[in-house]
Amino acid sequence: MPKKTLKVAVLGLGTVGSGVPVILQEQKDKIEQIIGMEFIITKALVRDVKTKKELAQKYNIKLVLDIKEIVQDPEVDVVVELIGGIKLARDFIKEALNARKHVVSANKDLVATYAEELITLAKAQSVNFYYEAAVAGGVPILRTLSSSLNADGICEVLGIVNGTTNYMLTQMSQEGKTYDEALTSAQELGFAEADPTNDVDGIDAAYKMVILTAFAYGMKISLDSVEKQGIRALQSQDVKNANLLGYVFKLIGCSRKQKAGVDVSVAPALVSKSHLLANVHHEMNAIFVKSAGIGESMYYGLGAGSLPTATSVVSDLVEIAKNISQKKIGVPFNTYETATKFAEDTQIFDKYYFNIELHSKKGNFDQLKDLFAKAQVKIKQTIDQGTQVLVLTYKISKEKKNKILKMIVDESSFELSSVYRVFD
Amino acid sequence: MPKKTLKVAVLGLGTVGSGVPVILQEQKDKIEQIIGMEFIITKALVRDVKTKKELAQKYNIKLVLDIKEIVQDPEVDVVVELIGGIKLARDFIKEALNARKHVVSANKDLVATYAEELITLAKAQSVNFYYEAAVAGGVPILRTLSSSLNADGICEVLGIVNGTTNYMLTQMSQEGKTYDEALTSAQELGFAEADPTNDVDGIDAAYKMVILTAFAYGMKISLDSVEKQGIRALQSQDVKNANLLGYVFKLIGCSRKQKAGVDVSVAPALVSKSHLLANVHHEMNAIFVKSAGIGESMYYGLGAGSLPTATSVVSDLVEIAKNISQKKIGVPFNTYETATKFAEDTQIFDKYYFNIELHSKKGNFDQLKDLFAKAQVKIKQTIDQGTQVLVLTYKISKEKKNKILKMIVDESSFELSSVYRVFD
Questions:
Q1: Which chain A residues are Cβ-neighbours of B138 within 8 angstroms?
Q2: Do B300 and A300 touch (CB under 8 A)?
Q3: Which backbone phi and psi does A42 adopt, to 5 degrees?
Q4: Could you name the CATH architecture of B347-423?
Q5: Which of B138, B295, B327 has its CB closest to that of A138?
Q6: CATH number of the domain at A141-302, out of 3.40.50.300, 3.30.360.10, 3.40.50.2300, 1.10.3720.10?
Q7: pLDDT of A365
Q8: Which pTM does this prediction carry?
C-alpha cells in the first residue's frame, strides 16, 4: 500500500518557514488530489520556543531546539531547511541526508557554495535534495531550466534576481530619488536590511548567478569567479542620462556561454526601454534566457516574500512526493554537467556607456575621440554636456574596454565618472 | 541493463516536424549527458515521399506512407504526432497508444477536444502522452503549471497565446496600420495563412485557453464554452483611442476561477501600458498568471515557429526518457482534476471601454450618462469627441454590461460603435 502521509520537519520558522504551513493548508485539497498523499508538518526547529508558540499551536507543530530530535526521528520523511547562513545549515542538511531524509532548502548561499557535496551525498543516500526557492523566490526558474529547457542550448541568462536593488533602482528612475533616499525607502518597507551589503553590493545576486550557471550550462563556478559590482556608487546623474538615451538602469546578473567558455557577472547596466527586462519594476524579479531552440524567453515573478518563497518550497515537496509514489529514488534536481571553462577578456563583447569629465573644455572633446580611435573602440553616439561627455560604444571586447579605461585614467585632461554595460 | 537508445517515429515532416531532427542533433551531447540515452528518429510518416527525400537522407530517416509501418514496428518507442487536424491525428495517436508507444503531440485542436479520451488510453496502456508544444510553442507553460505551480492556487490566467494576431495588433498600434494592412503584412511574412479565420477569430487562442484551463484549475471545458471574439472588427479609431487613454489593444485569452466557478474567454481588450502584457510585442506570446502563493508571474517566449516548437517537443521526449530510465510508468502530463463549474454573468466582474456614437450632439451626452446611472454602471472616465463618446467604467458585472448594452441599442439617439474589456 502506498504511503498516504509525508511527515515534514521545518528548520526555522521565520519569514519563509511560517509561510510553509500556510501554503500546505491553503492548497491541501489540490496537493492531495495531485499526489494522493498529504503533508503534515510534525516538528520545527527554532531558537526560541516562546516567540513561535502561537504559530506552532495553530498548525499543531512540535517545536524543538535540538536538530537530533528531527534527524533521529524515523517518522520524519522530509527536512526543509530555512535557517539561512552557511555553516549550521550545511551541518544540519548533511545530518538529515545521512539519516536518509529528503531535503528541501531555500538557501542560495549554501547551494551556491556546497551544492556538489550535498548533491553527491543525497545521491549516495538515494534521497532528493531540491532548492527551487533558492533563486528568485516565487519564479520557477530552476525547475524550468532543468526540465523544459533540458532540450535546448542556452547561451545567455540575464537576471534581475535581487528585489531589493530593483526596488531601489525603480525609485531612482521613476521617482528621481538618490541612492540614499532609495535605500531609506527600501529599509522602511522591509525590502532592505539595516546592513544592506549583500543586496546593494551584488553578492546576493552573484550567489544566484552561480546556481543559474550550474543549471543553464552544467558548469560549476565559485562566487569568486563572478565579477561583482553593486549599485552603491550609482549616481543620480547617470540614471538621468540613461533615461535621456532611452535606457533604464537595472542590476543585471549576466551569465553567458560561448564556445570559448562562460563569463558571469553582476553589475548595474543600461537596459534599453524596449527590452522586456526594462519593464520589470519595483521588487519584481525576472530571468531572461536566450537559447538556440526557443530563442528568447522570460520568467517573471516575485523573488522574495513569505508566500511566494514558501510556494516554491512546497512545489519541491510535491515533486519529492511524486518521486516517492513513483518509486524514483535519488534523482538530482539538475543532472546537466559539463566541464567548466571561462572565456578570456578578448572573447567577451559588450556595448558600453562611458561618462567622462573633461578638465578643460577646449579641444579635449576631440582629444577624447582620438583616444577612443587609438584604442580601436568604435563610438556609436556621443552626448556633449559641457564638461561631461557621454560615450556609447558599439560592441567591444572586455580587453579593449579595459585598455580605453586605462588610457582615460592615465590622461590628465579627463576623468572617468563611470562606465557601465549596455543591453539593447 | 538500461536502454541506451530510444527510437522515435515522427508523423509529419512539416514546419515543426523538420525542426525535431535539427534540435535532436544540435543538442545531442546535452541530452545524452542528462538522460544517459540517445534518441534516433527511425521513421517519418509523410504524404509525399519525394518532397521530403533530402531531409530524410540527411538525418537517415526512413519515410513511410502507411501508419502501420510505425505502430506495428516493435522497435519504435515514441510516436511524435505533428500532422495537425483532428480526425486522422486522433486515429493515429490511438493506434500508437494501443500499440503501447509513448506519444508526443503539438496538436492543440486535438488535445483541447479529445484530451480525456487519449489520457485515459495512455494511462491504461502505461505509456506517456505529453503535449507541451500544444500551447504557446516555445513557452514551457504547461509543464510549469503541472509541476512548479502544483502547490499554488491559481485564480487567473491571461494569455497572449496567438502570435499572428499579436503581430497584427502591434502593427496597428505601433505603425498605425489598419486591420487589412496588418493582415496583408502578416500574410507576407508567413505569420498568417491565406484563410486567417482560426487566428483572427480567436479560435486558435480559444483552443489554447481550454488546455490552460485544464492545467490551471483541473477543469475540463469544451471549445464552445469559451466566449470568443476575434480582431476582425477592431477599428483603427479604437486602437488610437486606447493609446490616448494609456492602453494597448491585445487579444487576451482570459481564464479565471472564483469560488462560483470559471469563466473563459478570448477577446480584444485594452491592456494598461504599465502591465507587462502590454509590452509583449510582435509575434511573441506570454502567459500572465495570478495565484494565491506566488502572486503574479509571467512566462514569455515565441509561440510558434519550427525550432521553438520542436524544442518543446524534444523536451517532452526528454521527460519520457527520464520516466523510462526511472521506471515511472504512465504518468499523465497533468494530474490535477476538479469538477467543472461555470460562474454566472452576475459573478463575473470587469472594467469596460464603450465607444458610443451620439446621433445628434445636443443633450445626448447627459442622456447617455443617465442611461449608465439607470443601469447602475459607475463611470470612471468619459471622453467627449464630438459625436463620439468614450466611456471607461469601473468594475461591473457581465450582467450589467449586457444590460447597458441593450439599453444603448434600444435607444435611438445612440449607436454602439464598440465595447471592450479593460485590464489595468
A1: 293-295, 297
A2: yes
A3: -90, -40
A4: 2-Layer Sandwich (3.30)
A5: B295
A6: 3.30.360.10
A7: 83
A8: 0.95
